[in-house]
Amino acid sequence: QKEVEQNSGPLSVPEGAIASLNCTYSDRVSQSFFWYRQYSGKSPELIMSIYSNGDKEDGRFTAQLNKASQYVSLLIRDSQPSDSATYLCAVGIPYSGGGADGLTFGKGTHLIIQP
Amino acid sequence: DGGITQSPKYLFRKEGQNVTLSCEQNLNHDAMYWYRQDPGQGLRLIYYSQIVNDFQKGDIAEGYSVSREKKESFPLTVTSAQKNPTAFYLCASSSDREQPQHFGDGTRLSIL
Fold it and tell me: How far apart are CA B22 and CA B97, in angstroms?
């Protein structure tokens, strides 16, 4: 059974600070990695996707991938109260022909931004 | 506007009853997926389809069935064999296997 592990939190961060969310995965051949944000009672919303080792930046968000360590992280700079949500790490289930057949999700980290 | 539409938003099932959840997309996406989310848990893959008239079981397919007769539609039937159906059901789609998945608003299923 392929696994994706996240610290469930809650992770409490002051407004304006950097929030750091971490994720590890068990399937060494995974090639695609995603971060979703989920507000209470709502469906997940795609925040970032990353496929190569290193950093990928989009606005206040930076995703970091280290395939050797099987580790993915998400940094949120200048955290805002509206960033308070559960952040789900998802890993593509590898397909032999390339790409992924569905996603394996972690249980999510509950992030609270304190005003 | 393009998007993924799930209906109904809330659904109640009686014992021994089959119920069908609707998922329609107008994004012209080839791939469609069904996930289940239990409280405080991540999403788990039920079924997926990469092309019309073809679908595959995910991690928790027992007690569920699907069809993919049209590119834009991927309905999920929760059968009476699914003994613990209460959950938040999410449909997703992507243009192909390489692209990220985007989700509909979900259907909450409860037992009467």
Answer: 22
Give B107 to chain A, closest Cα distance, Å. Answer: 10
B8: preceding bond cis by omega (within 30 degrees):
yes
The distance of Cα B5 from the centroid of its chain, to the nearest Å, equals: 11
Does the beta-carbon distance from B43 to A32 stay under 8 Å? Answer: no
Rounded-to-integer distance, Cα B27 and Cα A23, Å? 30
Q: Do B41 and A107 count as a contact with CB atoms less than 8 A apart?
A: yes
CB atoms under 10 Å from CB of B72, counted, come to 17
DSSP codes joined into one string, A9-46: --EEEETTS-EEEEEEES-TT---EEEEEE-TTS--EE
Chain B, 26 to 55: residues with Cβ < 8 Å from chain A are 33, 35, 40-45, 48, 50
- pLDDT tens per residue across all 115 residues of chain A: 789 999 999 999 999 999 999 999 999 999 999 999 999 999 999 999 999 999 999 999 999 999 999 999 999 999 999 999 999 999 999 888 878 889 999 999 999 999 9
